[in-house]
Specification:
Elements (H helix, E strand, L loop, with lengths): L1 E2 L7 E3 L6 H8 L4 E5 L9 H11 L3 E2 L7 E9 L8 E8 L6 E9 L6 E9 L8 E11 L2 E12 L1
Parallel strand pairs: 1-7, 4-10
Antiparallel strand pairs: 2-8, 3-5, 5-8, 6-7, 6-9, 9-10
């Protein structure tokens, strides 16, 4: 796995600090990864933030014409605190009914955080192929086992 370099914008929150009234809005996204070619906003009003994230969420990410890199912003709403400072964004191909590992990116995080935002770039050299629909899994690695904290499905065109 390659580390995501200095080009990564990392934004971490802790829902526990938001208070019970605020947690209801973002709690709707628990266990999900929101993916967009645009930057994903952070808003004070969680209901507005959820609506905006759903509007911006894309299931298809396209490379720029003539480009060789898929760039996207992801915001993972972890189903529990990771308890570690590094998570893996794992890419799996599920074509043919079999889940096959394609690529992985290490992402630094707050061990006590439950929301993670990062800019991610992948290329064909990472194993991602144009037209592939992949499962994204934001996971805590324990030995050689991945403990999933959030998921999404994305097609790379």
């Amino acid at each position: 796995m390659r580390k995501i370099g200095w080009g990564v914008a990392l934004l971490l929150f802790t829902l526990g600090m938001a208070g019970a009234a605020r947690a209801k809005g973002l709690a709707k996204l628990k266990g999900q990864i929101i993916v967009s070619a645009e930057d994903l906003p952070v808003l004070d009003d969680e209901e507005k933030m959820v609506a905006e994230l759903k509007r911006l969420h894309k299931t298809v990410i396209e490379k720029p014409k003539g480009g060789d890199t898929w760039s996207f912003t992801m915001m993972g709403f972890l189903d529990r605190k990771p308890g570690t400072s590094t998570l893996a964004l794992l890419f799996y191909d599920t074509a043919g009914g079999k889940r096959t590992y394609v690529a992985g990116k290490d992402i630094s995080c707050d061990p006590q955080g439950t929301i993670l935002k990062a800019n991610v770039e992948v290329t064909v050299d990472d194993g991602v192929k144009p037209g592939a629909t992949l499962d994204l899994d934001l996971a805590k690695m324990v030995g050689d086992k991945a403990q999933s904290l959030a998921k999404a499905k994305v097609t790379f065109k």
